Amino acid sequence: MKNRKISILCLSGIILLSLLLLSSYLGDPPSIHLSNIFRIFLLLACGSLFAFYMKWNDSSPELEPVHIKSDKKENDKKGDNPDRPPVRFKDVAGLEEVKEELVEIIDFINNPEKYYKMGAKIPKGILFYGPPGTGKTLLAQAIAGETNSAFFPASGAEFVEKYVGVGAKRVRTLFEKAKKDAPSVIFIDEIDAIGAKRSTESNNEKDQTLNQLLIEMDGFHSNQTVIVVGATNRLDLLDEALLRPGRFDRHMFIGNPDVRAREEILKVHIRNKPIDGKVDIKTLAKRTHGMSGAHLSNIANEAAILAVRNNKKVIGIEEFNQAIEKVMAGLQRKNAVVMEKEKRIVSYHEAGHALIGKLLNTDFIAKVSIIPRGEALGYVMYAPEEDRYLMTKSELKNKVKVLLGGRAAEEIIFGEISTGARDDLKKANAIVYQMVCEYGMSNLGNRVFESSLVKNCYPMIDQEIKQIIDECYQEAVQHLKNNLDILEEVAKTLYDKETLTGEEFEALIKDSQKKTACSLIT
C-alpha cells in the first residue's frame, strides 16, 4: 500500500511538471495573460503536492515503532526475552575451578543484601583471557543465565570508528541500556580492539573510546547491579588503567582443557546425539590432546554429519576418527593425483618423522598416512598418553628432531631436499626461537629477549637459533642412518598401503628390528 501511494504521487508530479514545461511554449500574444495564470496555477499545484508528500513522509515512520512496541509487549507477555540467554553452568563443562570462582558473583547478584550488610561491593568487571575457543563467551552467557540478568553482547570492533565521538557515544548508549535493565551483564568480546595500551603521543578516536569505557566502568553506583565481562586472547595488549582493581577486579585464565575436561566437554556435545555403545569417550579425550572446546564441539558435529552421510542410525567410532582427522589435518583430497616420484618422496618423508618419533620416544603415534589432506601430502598423528605442562630442554630438542626427520630422510635417500618440509621448518624455528628468547635454553644463558629488543640483538639470537637447528638436524640424520633398514621397510609399506595405524606401525617396527638383529647375528 505504501509503495502504491509513492508511485501515484511520483506519477502526479511528473504530469504536473510536464504541463508546466509545455505551458512555457505557449507563444500566442492574445493569450499571454492566460498563459501566466496557467503557469502560476501549475506552480501552486506542484508546491501543494510536494508539501503533502513531505508531511506524509515525515509522519509515516511513526507507524512502525508502534508495531515494534506492541510486538515487544507481546513477547514479554509470552516470556520470550531474547536478552536473557538460556545457557546455564550445566552447559559449561571442563571449567570447574572457574565456575566455583563465579559462584560468589552470581550469589552477589541474586542476594545482594547479605553482602551489603557486610559492607562488600559487587565486583564491577571480570576479564577472561586465554586462547580462542576455550569457552569465554559461553561463561559470560552462563553468568547472565544463572542470574536471569539482561545480556548485552558487543564486540570491541563495534566501537572502533573513523568519525570522532562515535565510539564513545556507542559506549555510553550501551551502558545506559544496561543500567536501565539492571541487573544486567555487559559482555565485550575482543576487548583488546578498544582497550589497547595508549602511547604518550596518541590522541585518536580509539583512545577517546577507551577513555569513555574507563569512565563508565568507574561511574557505577553501589546500588546498580551491572557486571562488565571482557574477553581477550591478548592480555599483554590491554591498557593498565583498564586492568586495575575497580574496573576489572578479577582476571581469570581460560586455557585449553586437560584430558578430564575434554572428556566432560565431549559428553556435553554428544548429549543429544545417538552414540554407538562401542565409542569410548576416554579414548577420544586422549586423542584430542591440545584441542579447545570449540574443536571438540566441531568434532562431535562433524561425526554426526558423517553418520548421516553414511546412512547410519548411530554415530560410531569410525565417524569420530574421521572427524578428528578432518579437524586436525584438513579435508581429505580424494581426487588428488600424485606422481609416483612424489608419492615415494612423501613416503620416506613421513616415515622419517614417524621413525625419529619412535626412536626418541616423544609421543605415541596414532596414524601415519600419505593420503593428501588440506595442503599436506601426508601427515603423522600423535596421541600423547598424558597432558604435559612443563618441557625440558632435551624434550624440546627431540621435538625439533622429529620435525626435521622428514627432510633428513629425503636427503639420505634421494640426495636432495624438496619443498615438502615448509611447515616443519616453520614449527621447528618457532620452537627454537622460544628456547632462545623466552626459555633461556641456549648458550646466551638465562636471558629473556622482549619483542622490542629482538631487533637490536637479532644477529646474536639468529646465531644461536642456527646452531641449535643445525645440531638437531645432524642428530636426526645420524639416527636415520643408524636405522636405515627400518626406514626402508616403513617407507615401502607406507607406499603400498598409504595408511598405517598406530598398532600396525608398532608391529612393523618390531618386525624390522628383529630382522635387523637376526642379520647382525648371522
From TrEMBL:
Binds 1 zinc ion per subunit. The gene is ftsH_1. SMART domains: AAA (SM00382). Acts as a processive, ATP-dependent zinc metallopeptidase for both cytoplasmic and membrane proteins. Plays a role in the quality control of integral membrane proteins. ATP binds at G130, P131, P132, G133, T134, G135, K136, T137. It is found in: Cell membrane; Membrane. CDD domains: RecA-like_FtsH. This is ATP-dependent zinc metalloprotease FtsH. The lineage of its organism: Bacteria, Bacillati, Bacillota, Clostridia, Peptostreptococcales. Keywords: ATP-binding, Cell membrane, Coiled coil, Hydrolase, Membrane, Metal-binding, Metalloprotease, Nucleotide-binding, Protease, Transmembrane, Transmembrane helix, Zinc. Belongs to the AAA ATPase family. InterPro entries: AAA+_ATPase, AAA_lid_3, ATPase_AAA_core, ATPase_AAA_CS, FtsH, P-loop_NTPase, Peptidase_M41, Peptidase_M41-like. It is an enzyme of class 3 (hydrolase). Zn(2+) binds at H349, H353, D424. It holds the Pfam family AAA.
